[in-house]
Q: What sequence folds into this?
């Protein structure tokens, strides 16, 4: 082997050795720690529950049991649909169990009734002032204007819109059921036969 060939072989071996060192260094190089990507928790509705336990209400062949009362700023209909209260408002949610003790199908809390039969109206009073009912399209739990077969019993809710801060305030809170009869179409007037108040605070 000539000196030239020997020099070339040494250079080749050195090149291979350097290459192997480079590969080893690359394989042992530690990756910088990745910052943990934490997702912000989903916003949950602020809720305040008032303790309540009332005797069943019997009015115009309706049996009404008030089982719960709470405040929330969010009503969830499904995984993709919900109602959010405005910043200045909060929802009052009243849980009820309704039984139609009449022998015929009837509407509970109809929006309007011209049948001439007795029916019920409900209003929520905050310090004596009427709070609006929350109309929520697609909300299956509502019992307002729901049809009940004779003898049917069903759980549901009524939702009203109150001013933010009421949940921690001292205002009086009342749900009033009025039995209405003798609707006069010409005068558009109704007569209240009987009223029952449920006082939450």
A:
């Amino acid at each position: 082997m000539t000196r030239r060939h020997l020099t070339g072989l040494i250079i080749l071996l050195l090149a291979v050795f350097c290459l192997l060192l480079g590969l080893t260094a690359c394989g042992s190089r530690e990756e910088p720690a990745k910052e943990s990507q934490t997702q912000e928790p989903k916003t949950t509705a602020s809720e305040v529950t008032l303790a309540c336990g009332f005797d069943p209400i019997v009015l115009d062949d309706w049996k009404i049991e008030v089982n719960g009362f709470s405040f929330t700023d969010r009503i969830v209909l499904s995984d993709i649909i919900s109602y959010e209260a405005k910043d200045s408002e909060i929802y009052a949610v009243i849980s009820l169990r309704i039984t139609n003790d009449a022998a015929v199908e009837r509407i509970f809390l109809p929006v309007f009734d011209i049948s001439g039969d007795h029916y019920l109206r409900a209003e929520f009073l905050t310090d004596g002032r009427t709070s609006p009912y929350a109309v929520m399209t697609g909300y299956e739990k509502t019992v307002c204007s729901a049809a009940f077969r004779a003898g049917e019993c069903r759980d549901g809710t009524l939702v009203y819109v109150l001013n933010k801060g009421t949940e921690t305030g001292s205002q009086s809170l009342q749900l009033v059921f009025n039995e209405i009869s003798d609707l006069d179409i010409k005068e558009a007037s109704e007569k209240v036969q009987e009223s029952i108040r449920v006082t939450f605070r």
The domain at 47-199 is CATH 2.60.40.1240 (Immunoglobulin-like).
